Amino acid sequence: MPEHTIIRVAVPSPLRRQFDYLLPRSVGPAAPGQRVQVAFGQQQLVGIITELPQSSDLPVEKLKPVLALIDSQPLFDTALLQLCLWAANYYQHPVGEVLHAALPALLRAGEQAALATETRWQITVQGLGLPEGAPKGAKKQANLLTFLRAGARTPADIEQAGFSRAILKALGDKQLVEAIEIAETQTFNGPLSELALTLNQEQSAALKAIKPTGFSTSLLDGVTGSGKTEVYLQAIAQQLEAGRQALVLVPEIGLTPQTVARFQRRFNVPVGILHSGVADGGRNSAWLRARAGLDRIIIGTRSAVFTPLKHPGIIIVDEEHDNSYKQQEGFRYSARDLAVYRAHQLHIPLLMGSATPSLESLSNTRSGRYQHLKLSKQAASEHSTRIIPVDIRAQQLQEGLASQSLAAIKGAVAKGEQALVFINRRGFAPVIMCHFCGWQAKCPRCDARMTLHRQPYHLHCHHCDHQRRVPQQCPDCKAPELQHIGQGTERTEEFLSKLLPHTPILRIDRDSTRSHKQLNSMLDQIATGEPCVLVGTQMLAKGHHFPKVSTVVILEADGGLFSADFRATEKMAQLIIQVAGRAGREALQGQVLLQSHHTDHPYLQLLLNQGYGALADCLLRERQVVELPPFSFMVILRAESKRPENALQFLQQARAKAEGLQAPSPQFRYLGPLPASMEKRQDRFRFLLQLQASSRAQLQQFLPQWLAQIEQMALSRRVRWNLDVDPQETH
Ligand code: ADP
Ligand code: ZN
Ligand code: ZN
Predict the structure, then answer these.
(1) Residue 189: pLDDT band by 50, 70, 90 thresholds?
(2) Where are the domains of the chain?
(3) At residue 187, does pLDDT exceed 70?
(4) pLDDT digits (tens, 9 = 90+) for 4-24
(5) What CATH architecture is 386-425+487-622?
(6) CATH tag, 633-725
(7) Sheet bearing 633-641, strands edge to edge
(8) What positions does the entry give for Zn(2+) 2 binding (predicted)?
(9) Fewer CB within 10 A of the end CB, N or C, for the chain?
(10) Quick one: average pLDDT of 30-54?
(11) Ligand that lies nearest to the alpha carbon of residue 478, given by its number in the listed order
(12) Are 17 and 5 a contacting pair, CB within 8 Å?
């Protein structure tokens, strides 16, 4: 028997391969899913064992022994390891980086996978054997023994009950009590803490259609306020009663304390929370607690799709159309799509919900791959909210607002209600310009204008974060005054504050909510129900439940009608409907005013008159005709470089290699290299090459061969490049 086991290790490196090492048998038994510390070039890295191969391509003498075996038990269970390997292959991303992405930061850094424990004192077998009242002549000791007969207690509990340390020590010395270390945990406390609502007919039909066991995918397609969350809660209740866990994915900015509170009010079980606002230690323990089966509900953003579950019961993806489910850098995965794979692998139901489902998911309901469950009415409101187009062509606007919109805002406030103004641009004004010579403030590093901010006063590039002082006069012609053109949230806030001096104006955008605390204090103020006007970006569009908002004004949302991105119209419609959904959610009649220069555009007409579903149908038909996703499968190879010719040449060579493997045909199409829609960003010139295939299998077979060739190209080491499978952004 050899003294070493050969182990194959995935390390976090951009190299698309794994490496073999030796694990001395004396160190411990090896299994896939354990972490090891290894020497890798000049570095020491934390790698993950993926398999125990019979032999290595290298002679055994050449293999290095690992520096340490970190885990005595696999950290990744078989299912999670397999999910990561599959994802690495599907997205053509290095396995080691994928495995690292699945871990919380502390485990990634090699920290022990130990749950926080606490000490409890329990009565020993010997102690249990004593009769009531023993030990005789030591009344306090006898009382403490009686106290501990009911169950193990923490030192704090014991102290609080009036027993001193000396008494505890005396019993310990007699071996009648002992200290144990257990994972901090609450157990399932049985009854629900808030009663479930009686489902309406559509809700109960939906719930019934979701089989609690076995794999299925359901799309809960329900207008905002139709009670989708109530269906999630009741589907989760079934799982909890059966002793299983629920994993709930929410969009990045949808994970507010209000969301979490909704789950905690309903269920008396430990809930784990995983998102970027949770500190490293908290995320680590939530991950480990889910893995140990202690947390019964896990709520998290994108990367929570990789949470290990001891007793998987159901996966829920709320607002499945949301962009934040797709990671846009590094490992470019879609958490929604991986959730489908995961549910299939674990043989459990997946429930996705949205008021504005993605065309991908709608298309999957058509083909019968997903169940289509519909909720057509608001659950708690008698009214239905209408979206009224406001044609602003040739209208005199006041700081971007039409007189009809202003009247509606004032009217709402006068009635003691709240109003919301949506404007998808932060800062004061997107353009600052000289009226005499036409000079504009442009970012020196990007093909973009700089936005004027007032709080604090500066110019800011929203693409690379470059900041500079605001010039006092025109840098070109020295004219003394510069004009501020267009609207940002700060400007609207300032204008409304003057117009309504006695009403609080709350601006909610990335600048005003740098910390979770700032956002939460504004949400608390809104929740008081006092009249106020909210001014905000798409941060306001998602998930929030504002019962006192009756009036919504949408300033600029129709840009999507004329964009180069084939998804732009879909995204525009989703945004309009989501923002509109903030109005009239409870007792109040809602009204939504949509300001546009294009109120008679057929897409807007369809959306406003027949709803999101009708527009989605129309867009799907168009995509089918031109064979765009979801009717074909797309990948984009992007390249950027300080020298534009390098990036361009890299993509030209990559295209030539690709055509060598797969000749262009109607089933396998090439587009590009093209300049990206913002060609220069952060001093780099950006280009892209688009591939579209009719068959996913064919594309998947092609990709690894192509990448192997790309990696051989000298230019591949001189430009930054990446591959995006199923890209969300295509320009
Ligand atoms: P969605 O998630 O679809 O936006 P919610 O689940 O937040 O909708 O429900 C909107 C409102 O309707 C909430 O106030 C909720 O308590 C209420 N609601 C949901 N289902 C019911 C029901 N069956 N009966 C009464 N009220 C309901
Ligand atoms: Zn000038
Ligand atoms: Zn810039």
Answers:
(1) very low
(2) 4-108, 117-183, 201-375, 386-425+487-622, 633-725
(3) no
(4) 899 999 999 988 889 999 999
(5) 3-Layer(aba) Sandwich (3.40)
(6) 3.30.70.600
(7) 668-681, 684-693, 633-641, 720-725
(8) 443, 446, 461, 464
(9) N
(10) 94
(11) 2
(12) no
Tell me if the pTM is above 0.85: yes
Structure tokens at 298: 């896990």
CA distance 454 to 471: 13
CA–centroid distance, 443 to ligand 2, in Å, is 17
CA of 228 to the centre of ligand 1 (A): 7
Ligand 1 atom nearest to CA at 226: 3
Is there a common fold for 4-108 and 633-725? no
Spell out a b/e string for 464-479, using b for 16 or more CB atoms within 10 Å of the CB, else e: bebeeeeeeebeeeee
611 dihedral zone (left: phi>0; alpha: psi -120 to 50; beta): left
Which of 62-71, 267-276, 416-425, 650-659 is least confident?
A: 267-276
**Candidate of 198, 230, 256, 585 to mutate for ligand 1, largest count of ligand atoms within 8 Å of Cβ:** 230
Distances (CA, A) of 276 to 252, 328, 449: 9, 16, 30
For residue 465, which of 454, 476, 453, 481 has the smallest C-alpha distance?
Answer: 453
Task: Report the candidate in 322, 532, 499 with the shortest Cα–Cα distance to residue 417.
Answer: 532
Instruction: Provide the residue type at 432 as one letter.
Output: I
C-beta neighbour count of 538 within 10 angstroms: 17
* Mean pLDDT calculated for residue range 405-427: 94
Read off the tokens for 617. 């149908």
- The model's pLDDT over 293-311, given as tens digits with 9 standing for 90+, comes to 989 999 999 999 999 999 9
Asked if residue 371 lies in contact with residue 464, where contact means CB atoms within 8 angstroms, the answer is no
Tell me the CATH number for domain 201-375: 3.40.50.300
